[in-house]
Design a protein that fits this description.
GO terms for molecular function: ATP binding; heat shock protein binding; unfolded protein binding; zinc ion binding. This protein has ten helices and 15 strands. By secondary structure, it is of the alpha+beta class.
Length: 394
């Protein structure tokens, strides 16, 4: 695909959003389309698969604010005639040889401002969009790394604290398994472009000015594939579904993002892959909660146990422990069990916080009522008033 063809694409139209759509609107539009067009939901439907690829390509550009800005600027110049070719007596074609009218600007102008390193020049735009620039070496003209991908996964409370190994299934552009990302048919190899000697850039002089532009023969890649791979058509990338196994470290929290280097979208023609970012969601537990590195739980106890003292057995994520409750313990008191909380990778360890809460029986038998009435009388006789000093009572 030539740069002109690339710039003529309307990524906003592909996603069904306006050119001034917010990043959140773009993300929502992509997710809605991706769900309906996903190859898993439309097996064997080539037309839908091509549409899915187009939507994915559009999102890969518009979801990145920097790429989106470069794309918008390039299309603005393209629409205004800034990329028009002008034929001349030399017969040379390319993006050099501009007239003042070609830029949509009347009067005097500085050619260097358009092609040079100044902010907003074509050199800046092509450098960002195609990872090339005037005077760059062959190494910098290589295809750029693949885009980063995002995925979400859900863990149980126990797995979020202790860590787990989970399989993740994703459908994305990946390195072609047939040509191993080279883009060339197996048994063949890309050759160095003779027109630009592998730099991806051709230079020419016109009067007092020198111009550099992406090589049209190799489309700026620096290499030519004579026999493209039939599966990826020379791109070195194919969309496929894959399952990867991910080790989630202990101590992750709700909404935390984990970066998996090199597990994102494959780069074109063997360029490095992007990264995969996994957002973790944690299911609530029916007993345990979390406060930083500490794990909390509430244990129901009887009034007599608090008054007379007892030892209760409480659960942890790795077994049970016994907690001593002294006589005269107040309702709602919290006990700390050291080292039974969250273990983090940096070596820090949280605690288990056990809060005791009196459970009142909904009904009492006659014997229990009789005993409690005697206790209440003895309590009053001892002078104990549970509301003494409370709310200004005298």
């Amino acid at each position: 695909m030539t740069q002109r063809e690339w710039l003529e694409k309307d990524f906003y139209k592909d996603l069904g959003v306006s050119s001034d759509a917010s990043q959140d609107e773009i993300k929502k539009a992509y997710r809605k389309l991706a769900r309906g067009l996903h190859p898993d939901a439309n097996p064997g439907d080539k037309q839908t698969e091509e549409r899915f690829k187009a939507v994915s390509e559009a999102y890969s550009v518009l979801a990145d604010p920097a790429k989106r800005k470069e794309y918008d600027e390039a299309r603005r110049l393209f629409a205004s005639g800034g990329f028009r070719r002008r034929g001349g007596s030399s017969g040379r074609s390319g993006y050099g040889g501009f007239e003042p009218g070609d830029t949509g600007v009347s009067g005097d102008f500085n050619v260097g401002d358009i092609f040079g390193g100044g902010s907003g020049g074509l050199g800046d735009i092509f450098d960002g969009l195609f990872n090339r620039g005037a005077g760059r070496s062959a190494a910098t003209s290589r295809p750029r790394r693949g885009n980063d991908l995002e995925l979400e996964t859900r863990l149980t409370f126990r797995d979020s604290v202790l860590g787990a190994v989970v399989p993740l299934k994703l459908t994305s552009p990946s390195s072609c398994t047939t040509c191993h990302g080279s883009g060339a048919k197996p048994g063949t190899s890309p050759r160095v472009c003779p027109n630009c000697n592998g730099s991806g850039i051709v230079s020419s002089n016109q009067g007092a000015f020198g111009f550099s532009e992406p090589c049209l023969d190799c489309r700026g890649t620096g290499s030519i594939i004579d026999t493209p791979c039939v599966d990826c058509r020379g791109s070195g990338v194919s969309t496929r579904t894959r399952t990867i196994t991910v080790r989630i470290p202990g101590g992750v929290e709700e909404g935390q993002r984990i970066r998996l280097a090199g597990q994102g979208e494959a780069g074109m023609r063997g360029a490095p892959a992007g990264d995969l970012y996994v957002t973790v969601h944690v299911d609530p537990h029916h007993v345990f909660s979390r406060s930083g590195n500490d794990i909390t739980l509430t244990v129901p106890v009887a009034f007599a146990e608090l008054a007379l003292g007892t030892t209760v057995s409480v659960p942890t994520l790795e077994g049970r422990v016994r907690v001593k409750v002294p006589a005269g313990t107040a309702d709602g008191r919290t006990f700390r069990v050291r080292g039974k909380g969250v273990h983090r990778k940096d070596g820090t360890v949280g605690d288990l916080l056990v809060t005791v809460k009196v459970a009142v029986p909904p009904e009492l038998g006659a014997d229990a009522v009789e005993v409690l009435e005697k206790y209440a009388a003895a309590e009053r006789a001892s002078g104990f008033d549970p509301r003494a000093g409370w709310a200004g009572a005298q």
